[in-house]
Amino acid sequence: MQHGKKQKRLFSNAAWVAIIFFFGSTLLLWLFSDQLAIMFLYIPGQNISDLVLFGRAKVILVAILSILFALVSYVLVLKYSLMTVHRPPPPVIPQEAFSDLMLSREQFRKLYENSPVPYFSIDSVGNIRNPNTAALRFLGGTLEECISTNFYSLLIDEGDSSQGMSLLKAKVERSVPISQEEMRITTINRKKDRYALVSIYSLAHNSSVAFRHLVTLVDVSKERENEQVKTDFLLLASHQLRTPLTTIKWHIDYLLSSDSIEMPDLVREYLEQIYIGNERMIELITTLLTVSRIEMGVLAPQYEEVEVNKVVQDILAELSADIKKRKTEVVVTTEGDDVLTTDYTMLRIIIHNLLTNAIKYTSNGGKVTIESMFSPHSCTIAVSDTGYGIPIDEQEKIFTKMFRATNARKVSANGTGLGLYMSRAFTEKLGGSMTFYSEEEKGTTFTITLPRVAPEA
Amino acid sequence: MNSQNTCSVLIVDDEESLVNVLARKFEDEGITAYTALDGREGLNLALEKHPDIILLDIMMPEMDGFDVMKHLQEDAWGKTVPIILLTNSSSIDTVAKAVTSGMSEFLVKTDIRLDDVVAKVKDRIQG
Lengths: 457, 127
Prior knowledge:
By secondary structure, chain A is of the alpha+beta class. Helix content of chain A is about 50%, strand content about 20%. Chain A has 4 domains: about 1-85, no CATH class; about 115-220, PAS domain (Beta-Lactamase, 2-Layer Sandwich); about 230-295; about 305-450, Heat Shock Protein 90 (2-Layer Sandwich), CATH 3.30.565. Chain A is built from 13 helices and 13 strands. The longest helix of chain A has about 40 residues, at about 1-40. Chain A is elongated. In chain B, helix 2 (about 40-50) runs parallel beside helix 3 (about 65-75). Chain B has a 5-stranded parallel beta sheet with strand order 2-1-3-4-5, with helices on both faces. The longest helix of chain B has 13 residues, at about 15-30. At the A-B interface, helix 7 and helix 8 of A face helix 1 and helix 4 of B.
């Protein structure tokens, strides 16, 4: 009701303004019509008396213009008044919402301050502000020391230094987010280095806040230390376990190979048996250490160009005595350029395991085929045999650690059940895959597919 | 070749029994074998005797194989002497470190027979 009255008053006000405007403009136009006509319509050389308006014409023209002005003023006044009336009132934050806001702020502050994750802000050149307690602890300084330190000066580049650092600075300056990049950071007193996953997120690029890059650190120093301990352990285990075996190996080797030493046949035979047993022990330890490396995640491929056929031929030469003894027919076929960028040692172990199994688990006079196909982006190596095959109900366990198929156990008591597990782990480490197809008493085909180039880190 | 005009080899390894059997094998083959049981002793002996080739273990007390290599690089003769690394650590990291440090041959002790070690040494001296 009140709103209707208000609107009526607006209309009448606008009408009054229009009326005043009408009379005002009529008076002014009447008095100055001649001057206006001369001002706007005069063409040089024209007689001025021709432009002076007289009688009815003047009345009509003045009336039309005045009505026009009045109408325009009416519309404008009305529009402005209505806009003012309909403008929403400034928001009033209710007391309850204000309290909620303050509570949220307080909660955020507490979380920020007491979070175990180090947080702080930096400006575009790396100066530190607002470090939380965890950040002070991580950086090893007081608040004053922290805010007078440049974050970039604490970063230690481990690789090609200057490039990495300038890239980081450029990213921060352009507000490109940095997510969990592992960096080595020294403390403010430069006494201790730590490793952290660093994330930097920036407020909008055009934000007027100077310290607009928010930094979070996740301390991974312990994980790095553990990794080093694992590597050291493996290195030590590898060395310490093999040394006594080498002593046995070389001493028996000396006794057996020296022409100057004479010994009864029985002693020679037993020494040969000890030598073979020792060799099996060496092989087992090597395999177990390799499996430990896989499981501890400390096995990193060393990429180089490898000729697959050369690897295959080397292995076949190594296994030639066994191939001859079993009268196994071996067929090697290749399609395409056989060079690929991969880890030589791992590839050799994979093919060696597959070939050894194919020969071992194929009856005498059987056939083993090695087919390599090279496309522009990948390489496929298939090792097939006409052997005993894998029982269908055991096939799903074939890549399980320490698993040996029941028919394989009958054929040979020796075997660790680690060869296929290790081969598949290596294949996957090299960015490839391993599959197989097997039918009992017909044979098995293992197929590995590897990329031609090293996968991106 | 050394002054007596016979081939000589220096074996540096902290495992005494291995050093002994390897030295005996070389002597059987007519190659003079000098032995050292740690890196520092090995370095001193190398600089004194100037053997034709060095068989060097990596993990040793006092001074490891890589440190011996580093010190040999500072000597005019040491820069040229062939070195074969003999180790039981077949980890890929160690191999990579050996290759990058200029070690031309890398043999894993458990993988090689005595005859093969002798053959490698003869190859390197004559080659």
